[in-house]
């Protein structure tokens, strides 16, 4: 469980939030608006609308939907995005998601995305699904500003609720907005979150028309653990040798000096092309929290996080790479289980 409040980071377009490593805070929820190229987002939405334009038609795409109903848990209508969109649309969609995962999360792959719509009565009640991957996403194609329904927001439990008793104050009353974060599915908004956090979708009430429904693409980022190299003058082979030399002493130090943490920390190393030296260490993705069952007496969860970050910085900040004259960056994933 996380003891610090989940951080909601809002990104516009392709901007990057990369705090200095020792200043990193756990970020369990990230929102990026205008995620897809506008023409692609409109094309995907247009395909869906066209297939439902004439309710009496026998278009084959009207028969690919699965009504998924698990009593008291899940109700929605879903299909495979790969089977629904044409090859060019699907390639652009999955490339955009995969590129984002590699650059910002340290994840090299994604699960095949679902396309789902929610009409009256559809919902997802609270659940977790971290076994699918370390990061879940929802990419909205909903015409949210013109909606004719209530509900449909993604909700996530706040850390105040997950770690309720540690900061309990009997003099303070709490309401839902202090216990749950909610995210509206605006058109072309990517909502990324830690699937260990209990989450769900508020029940949709109102429309029964698919074209006026909550419409989203969703899935998980996967294949975490392999460094990602972005441009520059460092070969993967030579960089791997340098990293391997540094990582084993780092792992030994973390095991001997620090309390246990769980989650993901992806560190970006910016490398100067002229010298091969690390010029900056920053956090790209961070869901790392202290294991409350392994706290050393007197340590707070925040102090445990700080000690882990300092050890990682100490072992990586003075690395020397064989650079060929062009600035480089390496995203290095750390998985704590």
TrEMBL record:
InterPro entries hit by this protein: Oxoglu/Fe-dep_dioxygenase_dom, Pro_4_hyd_alph_FE2OG_OXY
Protein name (record): Fe2OG dioxygenase domain-containing protein
Region (Disordered): 1-20
PROSITE patterns hit by this protein: FE2OG_OXY
Protein family (similarity comment): Belongs to the iron/ascorbate-dependent oxidoreductase family.
The Fe2OG dioxygenase domain, residue ranges: 109-223
Keyword Metal-binding attributed: yes
Pfam family, one: 2OG-FeII_Oxy_3
Signal peptide boundaries: none
Organism: Guillardia theta (strain CCMP2712)
GO MF: metal ion binding; oxidoreductase activity
Domain of life: Eukaryota
Keyword ATP-binding part of the UniProt annotation: no
Key words, A-Z: Iron, Metal-binding, Oxidoreductase
């Amino acid at each position: 469980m996380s003891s610090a409040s989940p951080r909601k980071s809002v990104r516009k377009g392709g901007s990057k939030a990369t705090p200095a490593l020792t200043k990193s805070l756990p970020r369990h929820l990230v929102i990026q608006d205008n995620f897809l190229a506008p023409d692609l987002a409109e094309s995907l939405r247009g395909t869906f609308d066209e297939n439902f334009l004439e309710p009496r038609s026998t278009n084959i795409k009207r028969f690919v939907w699965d009504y998924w109903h698990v009593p008291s848990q899940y109700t929605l209508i879903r299909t495979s995005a790969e089977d629904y969109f044409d090859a060019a649309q699907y390639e652009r969609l999955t490339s955009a998601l995969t590129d984002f995962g590699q650059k910002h999360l340290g994840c090299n792959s994604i699960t095949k995305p679902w396309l789902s719509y929610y009409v009256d009565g559809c919902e997802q009640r609270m659940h977790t699904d971290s076994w699918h991957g370390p990061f879940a996403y929802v990419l909205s194609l909903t015409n949210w500003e013109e909606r004719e329904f209530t509900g449909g927001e993604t909700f996530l439990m706040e850390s105040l609720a997950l770690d309720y008793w540690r900061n309990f104050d009997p003099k303070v009353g709490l309401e839902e907005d202090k216990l749950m974060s909610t995210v509206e599915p605006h058109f072309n908004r990517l909502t990324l979150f830690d699937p260990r956090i209990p989450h769900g979708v508020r029940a949709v009430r109102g429309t029964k028309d698919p074209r006026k429904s909550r419409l989203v693409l969703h899935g998980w980022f996967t294949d975490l653990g392999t460094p990602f190299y972005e441009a520059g003058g460092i070969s993967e082979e030579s960089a791997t040798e340098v990293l391997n030399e540094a990582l084993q002493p780092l792992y030994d130090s973390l095991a001997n000096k620090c309390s246990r943490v769980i989650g993901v920390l992806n560190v970006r190393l910016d490398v100067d092309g002229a010298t091969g030296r690390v010029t900056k260490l920053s956090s790209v993705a961070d869901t790392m929290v202290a294991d409350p069952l392994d706290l050393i007496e007197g340590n707070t969860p925040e102090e445990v996080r700080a000690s882990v970050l300092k050890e990682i910085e100490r072992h990586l900040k003075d690395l020397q790479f064989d650079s060929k004259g062009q600035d480089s960056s390496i995203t290095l994933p750390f998985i704590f289980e």
